[in-house]
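// run 5 | inverse folding | seed 20
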């Protein structure tokens, strides 16, 4: 049987329950509360709890209590905690995307994708705390992948190269998103960006970091660059923007080599 001949029920059986639910491939429960509760309602309540108190605070018991039902009634809609996490992840990715840009503006398109992913981690700080179970297979997660691929549509790349670039951009965005998320948490807890960056420890580090022990780090600490003591004199600007631009430079160089028939390695 070809994939075109498969029924929605057959496709749903090939996916984890959470993914099948996200695609609407599972019939609603026939027992339990009817019309008073829905999968979307459960997921949105879980996200509300996670946004407020973190992922560890999300449980079927708490969600059920806040919705006015029993935990067992929730399991009729969502079979497990892992399925709930997948649905939360997918729902968090349901936000408006920027308009499509012309092909020559691919760098800006990639910047928008990375910035959007970083913002996702800041709006929903629990998002990167969910373990990576595998490749994205839920609809809104896949829309994020499609967004990342958008800028590469007309590039002279094969599909494997495109997906490798998606992984590169997504990995960088995830790393930066976690750092930004942690900075936000530190500031909310009463710290500051300067303290998070170690500015308050500059003097102490200059005493502790000896050139014979740390020959390459020592001059960086002495100059103030390690703790951004002289931020106004920083010639590269924001570290994360600088890193992204170097990634985009490498993609541009790779494209130039591909166009000139150079090696792909």
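// decoded
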């Amino acid at each position: 049987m070809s994939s075109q001949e498969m029924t929605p029920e057959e496709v749903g059986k090939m996916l984890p329950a959470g993914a099948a639910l996200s695609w609407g491939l599972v019939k609603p429960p026939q027992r339990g509360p009817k019309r008073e509760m829905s999968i979307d309602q459960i997921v949105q309540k879980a996200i509300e709890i996670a946004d407020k108190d973190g992922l560890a605070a999300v449980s079927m018991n708490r969600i059920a209590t806040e919705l006015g039902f029993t935990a067992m009634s929730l399991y009729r809609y969502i079979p497990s905690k892992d399925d709930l996490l997948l649905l939360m992840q997918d729902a968090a990715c349901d936000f408006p995307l920027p308009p499509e840009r012309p092909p020559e503006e691919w760098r800006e398109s990639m910047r928008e994708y990375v910035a959007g992913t970083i913002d996702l981690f800041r709006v929903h700080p629990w998002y990167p705390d969910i373990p990576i179970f595998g490749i994205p297979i839920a609809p809104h997660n896949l829309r994020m992948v499609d967004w990342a691929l958008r800028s590469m549509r007309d590039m002279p790349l094969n599909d494997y190269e495109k997906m490798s670039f998606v992984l590169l951009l997504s990995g960088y965005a995830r790393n930066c998103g976690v750092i930004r998320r942690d900075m936000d948490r530190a500031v909310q807890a009463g710290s500051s960006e300067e303290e998070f960056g170690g500015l308050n420890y500059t003097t102490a580090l200059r005493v502790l970091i000896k050139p014979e022990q740390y020959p390459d780090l020592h001059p960086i600490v002495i100059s103030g660059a390690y703790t951004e003591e002289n931020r106004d004199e920083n010639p590269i600007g924001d570290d994360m923007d600088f890193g992204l631009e170097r990634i985009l430079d490498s993609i541009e160089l790779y494209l130039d080599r591909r166009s000139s028939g150079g090696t792909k390695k």
